Amino acid sequence: DGGITQSPKYLFRKEGQNVTLSCEQNLNHDAMYWYRQDPGQGLRLIYYSQIVNDFQKGDIAEGYSVSREKKESFPLTVTSAQKNPTAFYLCASSLDRVAEQFFGPGTRLTVL
Amino acid sequence: AQSVTQLGSHVSVSEGALVLLRCNYSSSVPPYLFWYVQYPNQGLQLLLKYTSAATLVKGINGFEAEFKKSETSFHLTKPSAHMSDAAEYFCAVITGAGSYQLTFGKGTKLSVIP
């Protein structure tokens, strides 16, 4: 089955720690995205990548970093510089910039 | 800059009643428009999309939406609500100009009353 997987489903972090969220897709999509979802806020774009080895900041990139070394993988690191990281994180991919985006099941990050 | 406004953060309907979820967008160029549904603690699933073909777009689970350029609207409807329709719905737009970023509305939570 083609799709997007995210791991882990739940993640707990102590203040001051960096954590990495995994996102893998086997849809052969060129574009991949990371969103943050907070209650009542909708989805906000953190980073996106249109092609391997290239990525751009979204609206709320501060405190986050990404890499795109392989077409199928787009991991997100939440650094200690992110002041309020507790949120639901969603990864998505699409064939191109205007095609519909397909979403993974999400990772819920909680800072203790 | 593009933006999306969803009127009503919460909408309640009775089972069997019409569902109407409102979405208005702002865009200086012809947009690509999408409706997504999200069930609790899950990712988003595409319901339907408008990409400048027919103005009335049919989606999954009996939903449809009509693109009205003069009103800059893309409202989502379903003739008869089912209990399984209870979820959060997001309208989103890509204008195809500049960054091609998908911009989401803040969502409307639909409750279905038996």
What gross morphology of chain A would you assign?
globular
In the predicted model, the low-confidence regions of chain B spanning at least 5 consecutive residues are none
- The termini of chain A sit apart by 36 Å
Number of strands of chain B: 11
Structural class of chain A: mainly beta
Radius of gyration of chain B over all CA atoms, rounded: 14 Å
Helix percent band of chain A: under 10%
Question: If helices are DSSP runs of H or I spanning 4 or more residues, what is the number of helices of chain B?
Answer: 0
Strand portion of chain B: over 45%
Mean pLDDT value of chain B? 91
Considering residues with a beta carbon less than 8 A from a beta carbon on another chain, report the largest interface and each chain's count: A-B, 25 and 23 residues
The average pLDDT score of chain A comes to 93
Largest sheet of chain B: 6 strands, mixed
The backbone outline of chain B, from C-alpha atoms, is globular
Helix count, DSSP H or I runs of 4 or more residues of chain A: 0
Walk me through what this model shows.
The complex is a heterodimer of chains A (about 110) and B (about 110). Chain A is globular and about 35 Å long. Chain A has strands at about 5, 10-15, 20-25, 30-40, 40-50, 55, 65, 75-80, 85-95, 100-105, 105-110. In chain A, the strands form 2 sheets. In chain A, strands 2, 4, 5, 6, 9, 10 and 11 form a 7-stranded mixed beta sheet that branches. Chain A has a 4-stranded antiparallel beta sheet with strand order 1-3-8-7, with no helix packed on it. Helix content of chain A is about 0%, strand content about 50%. The N and C termini of chain A lie far apart (about 35 Å). Chain A contains no helices and 11 strands. In chain A, about 35% of the residues are buried. Chain B is mainly β. Chain B is about 0% helix and about 55% strand. Chain B has strands at about 5, 10-15, 20-25, 30-40, 45-50, 55-60, 65-70, 75-80, 85-95, 105, 110-114. In chain B, a hairpin with an 8-residue loop joins strand 9 and strand 10. Chain B is globular.
